[in-house]
Design goal:
Elements (H helix, E strand, L loop, with lengths): L2 H11 L11 E5 L2 E4 L4 E4 L14 H11 L12 H13 L4 E5 L2 H16 L5 E5 L8 H6 L16 E4 L4 H7 L4 E6 L2 E2 L5 E2 L2 H14 L2 E5 L23 E4 L10 E5 L1 H4 L15 H16 L2 H22 L3 E7 L2 E6 L4 H9 L2 E2 L1 E3 L3 E4 L7 H18 L1
Parallel strand pairs: 3-15, 5-6, 5-7, 7-10, 10-11
Antiparallel strand pairs: 1-2, 2-3, 4-12, 8-9, 11-12, 13-14, 14-17, 16-17
Helix pairs in contact: 2-9, 3-9, 10-12
The chain binds pyridoxal-5'-phosphate (PLP).
């Protein structure tokens, strides 16, 4: 099919709830995308952080082929090997909790919020979340998302959500009461512009929750699975959650979400309280296992740390040259470039030059390269961005 034929299908048959770029992607390989017109695009924002170890990682593809020949799906009436294996691998790389599987980030957060209510029971029904957060688009998670633009058209929201400024300990203290069931927070806000939590802030959340009998939930949907150079974002700060949610890069491109909870918290999720038909299916879990093995076999955590430093150095050099760059922030391969003006056009021009990056919050460029990225690919990306910034100056 030509690009036009595909776009015509969308115009006629697909709901237009996304602002799409007029390109049809037909192939992904490592750090590159290929479109139907034969363009090869360097992808520094692969699948909105889903393809964390690159597109179609051979290890993941091989695991999927093998699993597809044996068992695609079996409902949770039964046990299945991949689900058990993935839960063990995740548990051992985090805080030793137990897992519940679902199919997306929003679903993982839904599960976390429901579990927090079940576990704290009684009078507690409030959730504290941070301004600038993003937790998903379902009714509960959009209410958890403390950004008014996502609420428009959906008022009244599910009650009980209380919003506080991110990284503000005093505001957190004054928002607390014994009605609070949980604090839900991203260790590094992703959609909110790559805002890194302070260790003191996460520590304060931990202490206030402990004091008030509430649970700490970290949303690791974007920060998880090694992107920051550690398995999970929270591991940079020395503060452990009671519940953690994952999705995006967990399946290497296959839809999967997970919630992990400390054993005593997990015990509150008894049969009948929550479920997911597709959750933990054999195919998605086999992909998850392969992702973890690929990260370890190829030392991709180390690569994320090293290439993250390298990218930030290169961006700092660009900053010396281009006044429009205000500062650079982030950890590992989760990098935000704060501009002094809008970045929307810059992202479009980069794509014309066959580089994909992202812009969030109007003026933050997001670099989230696959963890397999090399120095020369980063150099290439920086060169393209340099050219675009020079042209638009
Ligand atoms: C993307 C994202 C979500 C939502 O994930 P979906 O799979 O789109 O439902 C939740 N939390 C964070 C931090 C995210 O980045």
């Amino acid at each position: 099919m030509t690009t036009k034929e595909t776009i015509d299908l969308f115009d006629k048959f697909v709901i237009a709830n996304y602002g799409r770029l007029p390109r049809v992607i037909v192939k992904g390989e490592g750090c590159y995308l290929y479109d139907a017109d034969g363009n090869k695009i360097l992808d520094m924002f692969p699948g909105w952080a889903v393809s964390g170890i690159g597109h179609c990682h051979p290890k993941v593809v091989e695991a999927l082929r093998k699993q597809a020949g044996e068992l695609l799906h079996i409902d949770n009436t039964f046990y299945s090997e991949p689900q058990g294996k993935l839960a063990k691998l995740l548990s051992e790389r985090a805080f030793g909790g137990k897992c519940f599987f679902c199919n997306s980030g929003a679903e993982a957060n839904e599960a976390a919020l429901k579990l927090a209510r079940l576990h704290t029971s009684g009078e507690k029904y409030k959730f504290i979340t941070a301004e600038g957060s993003f937790h998903g688009r379902t009714f509960a998670t959009v209410a958890a998302t403390a950004q008014p633009k996502y609420h428009e058209g959906f008022l009244p929201l599910l009650p009980g959500f209380v919003y506080v400024p991110f990284n503000d300990i005093a505001a957190l203290e004054s928002a607390f009461s014994d009605e609070v069931a949980a604090v839900l927070v991203e260790p590094i806000q992703g959609e909110g512009g790559i805002n890194v939590a302070t260790a003191e802030y996460l520590q304060a959340i931990r202490e206030l929750c402990d004091k008030n009998g509430a649970v700490v939930i970290f949303d690791e949907v974007q920060t998880g699975m090694g992107r920051t150079g550690k398995w999970f974002g929270y591991q940079h700060f020395g503060v452990e959650p009671d519940i953690m949610t994952m999705a995006k890069a967990l399946g290497g491109g296959v839809a999967i979400g997970a919630m992990m909870a400390k054993e005593e918290v997990a015990a509150s999720l008894v049969p009948g309280k929550h479920a997911s038909t597709f959750g933990g299916n054999a195919l998605a879990c086999a992909a998850g296992v392969a992702v973890i093995e690929a990260i370890e076999e190829n030392k991709l955590l180390e690569n994320a740390t090293k290439l993250g430093e390298y990218t930030r150095e290169k961006l700092e050099q660009l900053k010396q040259k281009h006044f429009v760059i205000d500062h650079i922030r982030g950890i590992g391969l989760m990098i935000g470039v704060q501009l002094r003006s809008s970045g929307v056009e810059i992202v479009d021009k980069c794509l014309e030059n066959r580089l994909r990056i992202n812009c969030t919050c109007e003026s933050v460029l997001r670099f989230m390269p696959p963890m397999i990225v090399t120095e020369s690919q980063i150099d290439q990306a920086i060169d393209i961005l340099d050219g675009v910034l020079s042209d638009s100056a």
